[in-house]
Amino acid sequence: MLAYVIRRAVAGVIMLIVMSIVTFALFFASPIDQASFICGKNCSPAQKQQTAAAMGYDDSFINQWWDFAEGVVKGRDYPDDPKLRETAPETIVHCEAPCMGYSRERGDTVTNLIKDTFPVSFSLAVAAFILWIAGGVLLGVTAALKKGSIIDRGLVGLSLIAYAFPTFFVGLILYKFVAIKWGLADIPRYTSIADGGVGGWLSSLALPAITLAVFFMAGYVRMTRSYVIESFQEDYVRTARSKGLPERTVTFKHALRAALTPIVTMAGLDFAGLMGGAIITESVFNYPGMGKLAVRASQDFDLPTTVGLVILLAAFVIAANIIVDLLYAVIDPRVRLG
């Protein structure tokens, strides 16, 4: 298993390198002049040239990517100008490894920007993940056990309705009615554990997490129901029932365990995707997460921030795939990694 993890990790590093090259190539091929975009409308040609030289935009595509890769490994100074380092060292910003770049628009390193926004997106993703997994699997198993009954039809119908509502609509409804009109919850504003304790942190995540969980939970209810019903038709489930095992044991130890394999796959990928930032939810509730940072970076043509977020999201997806593959061997003994 260790050899398998090492092979997957090496393949993941290669994939991250390829993704960084592709992202750089897309920005490099864009007709927008990055130096002019940063310098502004009233920028003179000399100022534009100075900005391009300071940010390294006057170099070739290969040199720009190589400087980025070198910064990830060893760190980098911005602007990387030896003369300026001697004459005005106070204007130099040093970015420690792993350095994802320097955002001229926000006056800070991409690493610091991610450090500031990562806790928000991580907290929101974890809270929503717990809600939709617990609710989706539990309601899906209930629907499977009551197949054909009014409970089954009701749960499937409600899940279809919930799945049809877009995230921004659910978020706005919760914000306007639950928080503002009815006053059942505080106005959502992210509070860290250090500032508000565990209670304040959980309270600040309640409405945004429910907004995300409603959409995902609806899909997991139907998916869990389908896979559990399919597992009930397997021979090993019939054998377990013929042995006189309690229905609870048959359902959770045999049928649900087999149904968990595809559910774990989807859960891992969905969670990894949320780690890149729930853009719509963070925008509705004005949460300063990585999703909102990604929107601003794309609007400002902020190449360093965009590349850093793309690589971080890709790393989460790759790590999630490796973890899911390892969980396969735990959930299903028939699976062997080699």
Automatic annotation (TrEMBL):
Q: Which is one Gene Ontology cellular component term of this protein?
A: plasma membrane
Give residue ranges for domain ABC transmembrane type-1. Answer: 118-328
User: Per its UniProt record, what Gene3D superfamilies does this chain match?
Assistant: MetI-like (1.10.3720.10)
Keywords tagged on the record: Cell membrane, Membrane, Transmembrane, Transmembrane helix, Transport
**Residue spans crossing the bilayer:** 9-28, 122-143, 155-178, 198-221, 258-280, 307-331
Q: Which Pfam families match?
A: BPD_transp_1 (PF00528), BPD_transp_1_N (PF19300)
Membrane topology summary = Multi-pass membrane protein
The question of whether Cell division is a record keyword is answered with no
Cellular localization per UniProt? Cell membrane
Biological process annotations from GO: transmembrane transport
Family according to the record: Belongs to the binding-protein-dependent transport system permease family.
What protein does this entry describe? ABC transporter permease
Which source organism does the UniProt entry give? Nocardioides albidus
